[in-house]
Write a structure and sequence with these properties.
Tektins, Tektin-like, Tektin, mainly alpha, cilium, cell projection
Length: 405
């Protein structure tokens, strides 16, 4: 069994060892005091730095939140203007469609007026000024109708562009609303918000879809510019629509007034012609009666000459039977020959006059038939123009309807 003998120190060594421990303690305490003072100073400086940095960050986040909020207000204003303008365009579209429906009625009126006038007959089936004005009315209506359809298509395209712009503004507003809420929460976070703050891994990394402040500004600026441009274009289009409706009504109404004026003039002309035809017909009827009387008179005169002719012819026949020398060319016989010739010539003249009177009567009767046919033609024309076309023209749409109201 080995035995261990502990080292025995001297009293002097014991004092030196204690002194060394005291010295080491003083050195350690001095070092700690220096570290302690440095730590307090560093902590104070870093606390001030941290608070300064945090305050700066909070201020910047708050400023950024206000910037986003202001931008949201601009977006909201543009959205309101765009929505209002689109609503106005929808109303203008309804006006145009209403006007288009009424124009269709005016087209029916014009075409039916032409179709009705095709029911005129004989010499009255003429291509007169009224026909020209009705054809012109058709052209004006069709041109207005086609232009209205083009404007409706343009308006629908503008409404679609407005909606696209609105969608972009709403998406941008929604993103900014989310960003505003995030920055508002971030700005109000405190170091004491223990339930809201936590440690996160790698938050300092830059996201892949990082945008620059300039890109952020330009993104919204571009959409606002596009929206304002669509609002301006919409307003211009509304002015164009209003001018189109006003000018269209003016053109249609002016031509309708022209048609109705020419129609009234044509009715007056037909009335005047009918009146004069009836006057001539009355004169012809009176002349026919006189002609018939004259013919009867001539026939009577011819009949009255027949006994005298028979008498003279009988006298001549008897005197031609005188015997021998008694068959003499004496004055009585010569007188009878002259009388016979005169009576025959008279009958011949009366018969010729009778033939002329009968021919004239025939001509009068033919003229009467023609006048009666022409009166019927004019009465038919009046029925068409006055009783059918003129009432039809009253169906022409009123101003407020053609204006789309």
């Amino acid at each position: 069994m080995n035995t261990f003998t502990p080292q025995i120190f001297s009293t002097e060594e014991w004092y030196r060892n204690n002194q060394r421990r005291f010295n080491q303690s003083d050195i350690s305490r001095a070092e700690w005091f220096r570290v302690w003072q440095q730590s307090k100073q560093l902590a104070k400086e870093k606390k001030l730095l941290t608070e300064t940095v945090q305050d700066d960050s909070t201020k910047k986040i708050a400023e950024r939140a206000k910037q986003i909020f202001d931008c949201q207000k601009d977006l909201e204003k543009a959205l309101e203007q765009l929505t209002t303008e689109t609503r106005k365009l929808e109303l203008e579209k309804k006006r145009l469609q209403n006007s288009l429906n009424e124009v269709q009625m005016s087209l029916v009126v014009a075409q039916e007026s032409l179709d009705l006038r095709d029911q005129r007959i004989s010499s009255d089936l003429v291509h007169d000024r009224l026909q020209d004005e009705l054809h012109r009315e058709l052209e004006i209506i069709q041109t207005y109708r086609d232009l209205t359809k083009m404007i409706i298509a343009e308006l629908e395209s503008q409404i679609k562009r407005n909606q696209q712009s609105k969608n972009e503004l709403e998406r941008d507003w929604s993103d900014k609303w989310e960003a505003y809420n995030i920055d508002t929460i971030s700005a109000h976070l405190q170091n004491t918000s223990s339930e809201q703050i936590a440690f996160y891994t790698g938050p300092q990394k830059i996201p892949n879809k990082w945008s620059s402040p300039q890109e952020w500004i330009e993104f919204t600026r571009h959409r606002l510019f596009y929206a304002k441009d669509e609002i301006r274009t919409s307003a211009i289009l509304r002015d164009k629509i209003n001018s189109h409706l006003q000018n269209g009504y003016k053109d249609l109404r002016n031509q309708a007034d022209m048609v109705e004026s020419v129609l009234a003039q044509r009715i007056n002309e037909t009335n005047d012609s009918l009146y004069r035809l009836k006057q001539h017909l009355q004169l012809i009827i009176r002349d026919i009666a006189e002609a018939e009387k004259t013919i009867q008179f001539l026939k009577k005169e011819i009949l009255e000459k027949e006994p005298a002719l028979k008498q003279v012819q009988t006298r001549l026949h008897l005197r031609n039977e005188r015997p021998n020398v008694e068959l003499c060319e004496d004055q009585p016989h010569l007188g009878l020959i002259i009388e016979s010739r005169e009576i025959g010539a008279t009958i011949q003249v009366l018969q010729e006059q009778l033939a002329r009177a009968e021919a004239s009567l025939s001509n009068l009767m033919q003229t009467r038939r023609e006048l009666e046919r022409e009166v019927a033609v004019k009465e038919n024309s009046l029925t068409v123009d006055k009783e059918r076309v003129q009432p039809l023209r009253k169906k022409f749409p009123a101003q407020h309807k053609l204006m789309g109201h």
